[in-house]
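Researcher: I'm comparing several assemblies side by side, and this is the next one on my list. It has 591 residues spread over two chains. Same procedure as the others: predict the full complex and return the structure.
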Amino acid sequence: MITRDLQAIHQIVTVFEKSKIQSDNLLDTLPFVFSVIDQNGQILRGNQDTAALFNLGFENLIGKSFYSFFREENLDTFVAHFDRVKMGEIEHAQFDLSIHDHAGNERTFVWDLSPFKGVRSARMTLFKIVGRDVTEFRKQVAQSTSIAKEMEVTKAIQTMLLPKEAQTVSSQFKLATYYQPAEQVGGDWWWYDETDPSSPLLLLADVSGHGVGAAMVTAILGASYHMIKQLTQGLQGEAKVQKIFEMIHLNLIETSGHDNWVCLSAVQVLRDQNQIVYWNAGGLPLFIKRKEGKLDILRQVSRPLVSSPVELKPVRAPLLSGDQFFLFSDGVIDFEDLDGATFNLNKLKRIFESYQHSPIQLTLDHVIKTLTALQKPGSPVNDDRTLVGMEVIEQNSINA
Amino acid sequence: MSGTTARPQSLLDFIRFCKEASVSTLKDYTHIESVHEMLPSSDSIILGHWMPVIIISSAVMQITFKTHLMTMDGKIFSASSFKKNPEEMSSQQVLDFFKEYCNMVGGKIKWLLEFNQIASGISLPILLRGFDEVFFSHQETPYLFSDKWKITSNTASLTCSILIELQDKTLWKRLNLNYEVSADQSEVTFL
């Protein structure tokens, strides 16, 4: 009977020993600095990360002073925190403090210092230290902060290059726009120009890609347009727009190379001819929502600027009072809808058709609201989304 | 030696037996002639990275015998038993050797108790970390005594310690252990 009891006890001891070895191995390989120190800062137990940091053999950590890991200028800070824990002023101290590793590299650590409980002797007070190396994390945060600041500047510059008013009412037109970059800054640009009252111009550009790179190209594009507008002051009608497209194309290649293609569309209103001219280099079709509710679509297949020499084939269409026309970037239709399918032009057409006889701002609001509702929840917005529309004011109809 | 009060002679004799048993066992099994006992050189609680432990328990007292060592010292001590150079020894071989060493010393302590008609049981040796020493009591009382001593050779050293817990604090006054028999009783060959 006693023999069987002894066998049982021996089995328990064997299991206990295995369990103990596993626990110790876990502590040894914790992926951060871990040590137990006495009141004088002497290490009683460490782990492999602690030993590696100071290029010590694992077993040689025993008896080493934890103080020796800090340079003089930081040791006082460590001791001050340690004293507060020792005196029982605080249950645990958490603080940032740099150390220098065995190679002399400065590393930033977040330290957590607290009493080590469970010691048998009441006279013996021990403390445990956990240190997490946050050097790389802090660098990344600093870089992110710096990038965020730069993004703010980029965003401010980009905002300067877009019209200040999203809704404009001139003597001839009402203007409504929606502009939503996929990131903080975007690769879409639009402009409304009524400098020449005889042929106002609405432009929309979509630079390939999005984010900072695309935003930089839109900045070049915006700046180019305003410069080219001055240079083409002497030209009239369609010749002027043709020249603007060509010069923007050349200027983009000159300044930013061939990496970023630019889809540029424009609608030129010819007041005296009661027509509009649709110019397109790689952009999406023009939607014309007629006053009576019919939707006309002007298509003109062409290559984006920068990708190939400019070959424009402007398309003309009549423009009646009360008509609305819309330019939009591909971000408007480039998303996954509720059915998991990619949205497309036909679906967008149906949205426009479903909302007839409305002022332009209401039409645009309806389209955006419907697009948002149709987007699959949680699916990302992949591209910058811009929708600009104009409506001919009825009382000043250019159509007699 | 630990303690703040004078220890009875029978206790001192018992501890002396344990020390001699630990030294002679190590000398026999390592075949290192220079092995001898020294006073401990450190007041630190943690005396080594490893701590094999064995417990001898009887109705009147419980004895915990511990060996505190670093791996490198263990390799030097144990290598000759395996007919190897220290650098050829694996950590596992070293730890097995010292668990068996504890078993041998514990066996001698048990033998002494049995020789004096004190029935006792002995545990399996168990391997702990040196740090686990903090979980043992160190405060000497009329029921609790501890001692430690260093064993060195020309090239390596380790520390042994003993913790004696009495069931009856008057035991040492009544106990008169006969330990005239040599502690050097047995021999083990490690393969």
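Model: For your comparison table: The longest helix of chain B spans residues 91-115.
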